[in-house]
Amino acid sequence: MNAVARPDARPDLHRPGVGAVLVSTWRVGTPERQRAAVEAIRTAWESRGWPDLGLLSYSVAVGTDGDTLLHYSQWTEQQAYDDFVRTYRDDRNAEIDAAVPGIERVELRRYGPIHRSAVRGGTGTGELPGVVVIVEADFDGPAEGRREDWVDSVFTALDEDAAAGRVSGGIGGRFHLSVDGGRVLNYAEWESEEAHEEWLADDGRQSGAWKRVHAYPGLVGARVRRYTPALSLSAGV
């Protein structure tokens, strides 16, 4: 089987059989190097057979900061990723590094499948995002049920927005819980970068239910980064 690129460059976020998600960040330095790295990834993967080790999809998005790349891969289970690392990863990375020297691989986190999601209009098809917003919320330890409750508090705040008639450009959000117990990741799709900036600037989200989200006990940090979908590969038939 060969790697096949999806035309919309997005992972299928409703794909069945996903038991694990791996998310990593690379720093490459400039927009030109971002584009070169994406093409090097495409070449390295399309020139080899698909590693049939439970890898369901591998997607790359380009940071609007002109520096970073986001990697989001779907697996049947965590062990499948470990098998891939032992057997297939090094030669691909070596080819990519030869094409774009000096890549900094910043972080890799393991997550479970989607814990909770919301999609505008109740469907997951037909609306393409202008930007993907990645929100990472870090907690001071793996207290039982705390991250799940925090995610629920986000949904309560979103319901409050809807009741107040506050409209956003958000298309959908999917929440993952990290395997190590310390992080929640929200993979959110938005109409545009500008729509997300306007939403962040809305003073109505500094009180009420959103205040509880931001001041949740044990929440020690949060980061927000924006990306544009660039490449999504899966096995061809």
Q: How is the topology of this model organized?
A:
Elements: E1 3-5, E2 20-27, H1 31-46, E3 55-63, E4 68-75, H2 78-87, H3 89-99, E5 104-111, E6 116-119, E7 131-139, H4 146-163, E8 170-177, E9 183-190, H5 193-201, H6 208-214, E10 219-235
Antiparallel strand pairs: 1-10, 2-4, 2-5, 3-4, 3-10, 6-8, 7-9, 7-10, 8-9
Helix pairs in contact: 1-3, 4-6
Give the key terms.
237 residues; alpha+beta; ten-stranded antiparallel sheet; 6 helices; 30% helix; globular
Structural write-up:
The protein is an alpha+beta fold. 30% of the residues lie in helices and 35% in strands. It has 6 helices and 10 strands; from the N terminus they run E-E-H-E-E-H-H-E-E-E-H-E-E-H-H-E. Strands 1, 2, 3, 4, 5, 6, 7, 8, 9 and 10 form a 10-stranded antiparallel sheet that branches. A hairpin with a 4-residue loop joins strand 3 (55-63) and strand 4 (68-75). Helix 1 (31-46) runs antiparallel to helix 3 (89-99) and helix 4 (146-163) runs antiparallel to helix 6. The termini are close together. The relative contact order is 0.23. The model has no long low-confidence stretch (mean pLDDT 93).
